Amino acid sequence: MTDSTKSVLAAGAVVGASLAFLGGMVVRDGADLGAARVASNGPAALTVSPDLLASRTGEVDARDSRYLAQIIEVLDRTYVEPIKGEDQLGPGAVRGMVASLGDLDSLFFEPGEFAAYQARARGQYEGIGADFRFVLDGPVPKDGAPEIQTEADAADDRGRPLPIPKLTVAAVAPGGPAAKAGMLPGDTIAELDGKWVVNAADIESVRKLQEAARDPKLSAGAKADAQRAFLQERKRIVDRMKHGMLPTKAMTALVTGKDGQTAVTWLRGAKRMSAAIEKSSFSLPEIERTGEGVRFRFVTGIGRKLQQEIGDLDAVVLDLRGVAVGDFGAMQEALAAVGPSGDYGEIVTEREAESAHRPIPIRVADGRTSPLRVTILVDEGTQGVAAIFAKALVASGVAKLDGTLTSQRLKVVEAVPLPDGSGYTLTRGLFQPNTQAVAIR
Amino acid sequence: MKFLLRTLAIAIGLAAFFALGFALRDIQNGRPVSRRALDSLFGRPAPRPTVAPTRVFADALNKIQADYYKPVETEKLRYAGVAGLVASLGDPHTMFMEPKMAQEFALETTGNFVGVGARLSPDPLGAKAVVVFEDGPAYASGLRPGDIITAVDGKTVVGSSTDEIVKRIRGEEGTPVRLTVVRASSAANLEIRIVRRPITVPSVESRVLEGTRVGYIAVTSFSEPTVQQFTAALDRLDLAAVEGLVIDLRGNPGGLLNTASDMLSEFVAGKTVVTMKMREGNQEVEKTRTGRLRKKAYPLALLLDESSASAAEIFAGVLRDYGLATLVGTHSYGKASVQNVFPLRDESSLKVTIARYYLPKGEDIGRKVDPDGQYLSGGLKPDFEVELDMEKSPILGDLKSDNQLQKAVEVVQKRTQA
Question: Is residue B23 part of a domain?
Answer without folding.
Answer: no
